[in-house]
User: Fold Cyclopentanol dehydrogenase from Lentilactobacillus parabuchneri.
Amino acid sequence: MDRLKDKVAIITGGVAGIGLGIAECYIREGAKVVITANHNVEGGKKAVEKFGDDKALFVQQNVADEKSWQETTQKAIEKFGRVDIVVNNAGIGGVNGPLDDLSLEDWQNVIDVNLTGTFLGEKYGIKAMKQTTNGKGSIINISSVAGLVGLPLSPAYSASKGGSRLLTHATALSLAQQKLDIRVNNVHPGWIATDIVPKGYEEALTKTIPVGHMGEPVDIGEICVYLGSDESKFANGADFVIDGAQRA
Assistant:
């Protein structure tokens, strides 16, 4: 308990699925959370009711929009006084199918949310940490095993997650060279039991996982507790794969 005591975290896409699992773990460990979503406003309200408005704030946010990021970090600072952790979790799967059938619009939509959204989260997370914590903190980018190996029918998703992975590495190196104590790491979930799992494919997908079952949002939440805490002070620019040995 209290591994994140007095820390303030922004968790994008934090009102359902993996994001909510991360928020639940963070609240348990003493953090205050700013949870965001673009469309699931009702889920945000319910999460704040569950956690308490002294511990949680919901902000409706479009992660692909720069002004929205400026407003989100400002609201976090106004409510809680600081930003210690940013978890770039919001993402979309996009349209599945062969690349030559993918429209430019569908491609761009996935890149905007999954990759540009991560870039903006890093940018404004760094600015907020410089402003409120003397340049100390942790940025956690939720990528995917699709950022490590390609998914043949999800080219935009794979490209966005692979791009997020290398953006993480580049940012970690840049901040370290600037002597800023802001760490940046990737988490790569495998199949987690959330609404993003295609309906009707659960059994077939589970057979591809060596441990014999899908993960739970809390499995990602626990590694994010470690990465958000001072316990991980030497973990920087790294990839943490949580996939039930699927990529082993």
Observations:
- The longest strand covers residues 181-189.
- The chain has a mean pLDDT of 96.
- The CA atoms of residues 186 and 239 lie 5 Å apart.
